[in-house]
Amino acid sequence: MNQMVTPKFGIGAPVRRKEDDALIKGQGFYTGDYLPEECLHAHVLRSPIAHARFTLGGLDAARAVPGVALVLTAADLEGVGTMPTKARMKQVDGTNHACPPQPVLCSDTVRYVGDAIAFIVADSVNTAKSAAELIELDFEPLDVVVGIEEALADGAPLVWPDYGSNVAFTLAHGDPDTCAAAFQQADRVVSIDIVNNRLVANYMEPRGCVAEFDAEADRFTLTLGTQGGHGMRDLICNDILGIDPSNMRVVTPDVGGGFGTKLFCYREYPLALIASKTLGQPVKWTGERMEHFVTDAHGRDNLTHAELALDKDAKIIGMKVHVKAAMGAYLHQFGPFIPFVGTSMSTGLYSIPALDVTVTGVYANTVPTDAYRGAGRPEAAYLIERLIEKAGEETGLGSIEIRKRNFIPKDVLPYTTPTGRMYDTGDYEGHLTDALKAADWDGFAARQQQSAADGKYRGIGLCSYIEACAFAGGEEATVELNGNGTVTLLIGTQTNGQGHATAYAQVIAEQFGIDLDAIEVIQGDTDRVRQGGGTGGSRSIPLGLPSVNNASKILVDKVKERAAEQLEVGTDDLELVGGNVRVVGTDRQVSLADVAAQAGETLTGQDMVNQTEATYPNGTHVCELEVDPETGDVTVLNYVIVDDFGVTVNPLLLAGQVHGGTAQAISQALCESTVYDEEGQLLSASLLDYRLIRAADLPDFDFQTRNVPSTTNALGIKGAGEAGTIGGCASVMNALQMALRDGAGVTELIHMPATPAKIWDTIQAAKG
Length: 768
Prior knowledge:
Mean pLDDT: 97
Distance between the termini: 65 Å
Largest sheet: 7 strands, mixed
Radius of gyration: 28 Å
Structural class: alpha+beta
CATH topology of the domain at 424-459 and 617-768: Aldehyde Oxidoreductase, domain 4
Number of helices: 19
Number of strands: 30
CATH architecture of the domain at 424-459 and 617-768: 2-Layer Sandwich
Helix content: 25-40%
């Protein structure tokens, strides 16, 4: 029997991250570490109230403060564009929805706590803050609306009175007539109302930027943590400043987390650029944690009603969904697209022939929402998996049989859903079976009895999910041979902690026969990297690695051609080993450095592999937990994940991504609560009030794969970066629902976040 040998490098090798040595030694370099000479510091004056008309006074006093270099208000931004909304879609009535203007600085009306009013630049942040205190804000308060249902109620205060409604847009998927016919034939209808709670990203590194202007070259440099410098550059130049993108360089150093929220352009970036050009000095703005809560786009925040139509055999014949999605006070950069793309995955892993989905976007006096890890797909998975769980309960079939009865069979793949999603490969019942075995599902009853004897409620729940990611497109890769025999990769994705440098270097190392430390990966510099799509939607490795692989092969062929001339052999007789090009079976060789020297030019390989369809990772999560009825505390005891990611590039990197995403899902399910009062004040505006999951709250994850290679990706890879968030929430909440039902007789649906106080109240209500 042949034993498969894991390569030292290349696809499939469990290579440790090459990035970590510098990071754990404190040798990383972030935006906060960059301070050019003569750099000034900026502070943003933000609205302390949620909705008001205002006038400004005291500007002369603020500008006269020693050390203050500039105070910008809306009056100083003539010719500057508004913050753009890039997601404009056709509504159900055939019209394109409106996009209200989000000014870089508000001129006369603020619409949420945190709305930007003035930008103060001084010799220190403290000086800028002191000057801001001298600016007089005369507010005429306007009525405030916060919640989704409140905003849609008759007579609700309007965020945008000219629109006549707080409905931002109405979008749809599916065929209402076909779905209505299916419901008329149904033997049973199962319905559910769920909450997908609003989240704050809370990456380790708050946002910041440093803007510089070279007057002689008439050119900007913007240094900041982002998920893609090319997109950031083009948006700022084309949409806001009205300059050619060639007149700006965007540099992204190390980034301490992104989660989608660092994809976007925020007001501080163009303001810092304008200030730098005005003053002829670098300008730095560094966000504080509390600013993050009231300025950076929030995630999720949906209210959803859904129904399943079942036939006499409990087969699903139709599904209706109405998602009400909070947009905040403005439509953020991609905000309207998030619930729309999410609901394209409404049917999950199930064969559902008829679908009717409506998405209603809703304005309120709150921070705008946009993509947060998973960007709509976690919301879709949470909906269908809590709904299918309820169907299992109401039909008496239970969690497993209801799923197996309705899974899309693997022998009908590829399968096109009612929303046009094309699932190419997978074995859905297979990963469910593996997960149940790993979780010892059959032994749960005995464990539940033991918990009951200890005065605890125990539950087990699952979620079988699928998501769409690594959407159609490509990512150009350029591989260069350096004079010293090392190799440089230039690519326009942007790591924010995923381990790109390691994954890309693995493939290059395999092709060139060199160690990882002989490979430099360059991202985050729009001058050095010609083009790039950035990082988001789990695209970097699935789209980037095929191009890196092909570009490496192209360069290897060029190296062999040059070496063949030097060694006077054919290229088929050569191999690359240990930094040399060697004649196979001999000790005759020439170093890569010699090849580079003899070439007389930089040898380069470049390619961009495009794919025309998304990838569709899928899997099953099983969560087992225990509830203390005296306190409402939840302990996650066991957590099993069996995923299908097609081809695994690096199992260590993959496990890290899945663990991190799952931790974020557990945090959403049990902890994270974004709370506004009726006046629009964010009560949970710091980590004192907004609880995140801690390492001590998490179990050791049992993570396995049952991979079926993708047919839509050149290397068979399916995206993985967001998957943990897709499957996590429903498995936790289904387990909690069981624990409360079996332990305390709870029949009502419990919603996220299931905090100890909410759980305790639910138990007391059930006890009467």
